[in-house]
Amino acid sequence: MPIHQISVVAKAEKENDIVTTLTFDTPLSQAQPGQFVMLWLPGEDEKPYGVAGISPLRISVGARGNFSKKLCSMKKGGKVWLRGPYGKGFDLKGKRALLIGGGYGFGPLRFLAEVAKKKKISATAICGARSKGLLMAPAVCKTIFTTDDGSAGTKGNVLVAMKELLAKEKFDTVYTCGPERMMSAVAYEAKAAGADCQLLLERYMKCGIGICGHCCMGEKLVCIDGPMFGLEILENPEFCKVWRTKTGKREPI
Ligand SMILES: Cc1cc2nc3c(=O)[nH]c(=O)nc-3n(C[C@H](O)[C@H](O)[C@H](O)COP(=O)(O)OP(=O)(O)OC[C@H]3O[C@@H](n4cnc5c(N)ncnc54)[C@H](O)[C@@H]3O)c2cc1C
Questions:
Q1: Architecture of 96-244 per CATH?
Q2: Ligand 1: which residue has its CA nearest to atom 25?
Q3: In this predicted structure, what is the pLDDT of residue 108?
Q4: What's the pLDDT score for residue 1?
Q5: C-alpha of residue 232 to centroid of ligand 1, in Å
Q6: In the Cβ-directed half-sphere of 18, how many Cα atoms lie within 13 Å?
Q7: Contact 70, 44 (CB under 8 A)
């Protein structure tokens, strides 16, 4: 049975023009990088968010619609009702890891970088955004920044930096989180370079525990079969093509 625990915001830090990182007053020690929690604001909604750190619990939220804007405007002492962690997280393996993220998707990758450091796995990260004002803070490993408009870091998208890096270095596994089209391009590039790839997917979710079926992608449920998927997701008929709105209507991505 899912049980909500009340978590109190200890710190709310604006990371960039749209992302706020909430640090809570309690740890979530059992969570693995890539897993998510369901955050409930009674009377508003309940939605999934990727774990961006566990001791204490951290969540990076991008202000998008009403619910995420409410989370982003929370101050120290604000309460959320939380259940989880849920889902299948990253399977950290190999000796050399490449982490590639865009927007708030870089939050879970920063958590992965912390775990990689503890396990003495060498990691390099690429963090991309449209412009300087949308970049996230660096990970605890070498972090390469890219912006589409060249206002900070390498000019171009994460693929430009990824190709440059892969021309010089070999990586066992690429871990990616961000817009689906970006992850798709990253996965094909990793595959071509002979590296494995793990992608963190997002679909509209309601229960988060495999009951409602709202987050289905073909035959897969993102909440329990994912949100981490391997290269096999490239063959899923709905990957990069279809998602379901709040009411379940199928819409092209
Ligand atoms: C496993 C998982 C982990 C997530 N982790 C994070 C996280 O770490 N940080 C974060 O900010 N958000 C995360 N999300 C997204 C989050 O759950 C909300 O969907 C998001 O905050 C928008 O909610 P909202 O109610 O503010 O916006 P809404 O009012 O629901 O939507 C605002 C706009 O975004 C679009 N939209 C909403 N949800 C999706 C979706 N899933 N896919 C495509 N378009 C969508 C809507 O069509 C609308 O145009 C995650 C989602 C999943 C499934």
A1: 3-Layer(aba) Sandwich (3.40)
A2: 67
A3: 98
A4: 47
A5: 24
A6: 15
A7: yes
* Alpha carbon of 39 to ligand 1 centroid (Å): 12
Q: What homologous superfamily is domain 5-86 in, according to CATH?
A: Translation factors (2.40.30.10)
From the CA of 108, give the closest atom in ligand 1.
8
Cβ–Cβ < 8 Å for 138, 62: no
Which token pair is 68?
Answer: 């995420």
How far, in Å, is the centroid of ligand 1 from the Cα of 126? 22
Question: Cα–Cα distance between 4 and 13 in angstroms, integer?
Answer: 24
User: pLDDT averaged over consecutive 10-residue blocks of the chain (253 residues)?
Assistant: 84 97 96 98 97 97 97 97 97 96 95 97 97 96 97 96 96 97 97 97 97 96 98 97 94 93
Q: What does the pLDDT read at residue 153?
A: 95
Phi, psi of 198 (to 5 degrees): -125, 130
**Ligand 1 pocket check for 181: Cβ under 6 Å:** no
Report the separation in Å between the CA atom of 194 and the middle of ligand 1, taken as the mean of its atom positions. 32
Any atom of ligand 1 within 6 Å of the Cβ of 18: no
Q: Where in the chain is the domain with CATH 3.40.50.80?
A: 96-244
Closest protein CA for atom 6 of ligand 1 = 49
In whole angstroms, what is the distance from residue 201 CA to residue 198 CA?
10
Q: Where in the chain is the domain with CATH 2.40.30.10?
A: 5-86
The pLDDT value recorded for residue 3 is 81
Its pTM stands at 0.95
- pLDDT at residue 219, as a whole number: 95
What ligand 1 atom has the least distance to the C-alpha of 107? 8
